[in-house]
Amino acid sequence: MEKPLKKKWQYWAFVLVTFFGTGMAASFSDTEYTNNESATYQSKRDSESSANGDDTDSTVQKDDTQTDTEDTDIDDSENQVDEKEANKNIRMLLKDDQKDATNGDDRYAYALYLKKIKYGDESVDIQVASNFFDLSSKQKDVVAERVQGVVGAGVSMVDSDYKPKDDQEGYNLNFHYGQIAVVHSKMWNSHKYKWYKSAG
Fold first, then answer.
1. According to the 3-state scheme, what is the secondary structure of 105-147?
2. What is the pTM of this model?
3. What is the torsion angle, in degrees rounded to the nearest 10, for the CA atoms of residue 174, residue 192, residue 137 and residue 153?
4. Given pLDDT bands bounded at 50, 70 and 90, which one contains residue 121?
5. What sign for the dihedral angle of Cα 190, 192, 197, 200?
6. Which residues of 35-67 are buried (b: 16+ CB within 10 A; e: fewer)?
7. What are phi and psi of 123, to 5 degrees?
8. What pLDDT, on a 0 to 100 scale, did the predictor assign at position 129?
9. Listed residue (111, 83, 84) closest to 96, CA to CA
10. 195 with 137: CB under 8 angstroms?
11. Which residues contact 146 (CB under 8 A, 6 or more apart)?
């Protein structure tokens, strides 16, 4: 009775070992085949690339870099305001307001206290007339705020990215009478002004 059982046990052990052994061999064979196929494909691709005289990966990378640089250049040039055009518009607006004020329209009276407004990327320089010193501090503030509006209007005509919030932030204004500094916008708020004693 024990002999057949012993043979039966050995038989099943042999079957299991053979089964697992074959499975493992097939698995290694598949992995090796896949790796070999991948290596062959990569080698073929590399040889084709070098035969054509270009490296696809580096070309793509180079193109991406060039595109990024070009986009940045375009964005920078689009974001910059054309100062010449902006100043042309500001001069025209100031002249119109001065004309209306001269014709008796009190809404534009602020313009009669100004000679020139010059917009710059960092700040706006304003030349005032001598009658500017006859104004009270509150009236001077009104003139300064009207200048903010004229500058905003002039810039908006040439800046495609212009938004109303740009007016809310305001512009850094520097008022002069000849070479004498009269007033400037405060650093933390462009709509608040620091008046010098020379402003009278």
1. CHHHHHHHHEEEEEECCCCEEEEECHHHHHCCHHHHHHHHHHH
2. 0.58
3. 60
4. confident
5. positive
6. eeeeeeeeeeeeeeeeeeeeeeeeeeeeeeeee
7. -160, 170
8. 96
9. 111
10. yes
11. 110, 111
- Cα(42)–Cα(45) distance, integer angstroms: 5
Task: Tell me how long the chain is.
Answer: 200
Helix (H, G, I), strand (E, B) or coil at 39: helix
Encoding tokens for residue 12? 């099943």
Count CB-CB contacts under 10 A for residue 143: 21
Confirm if 154 and 85 have CB atoms less than 8 A apart. no
What single-letter amino acid sits at 11? Y
Beta bridge partners of 183: 175, 195
Distance CA 153, CA 123 (A): 16
6-16 tens-digit pLDDT:
556 666 667 66
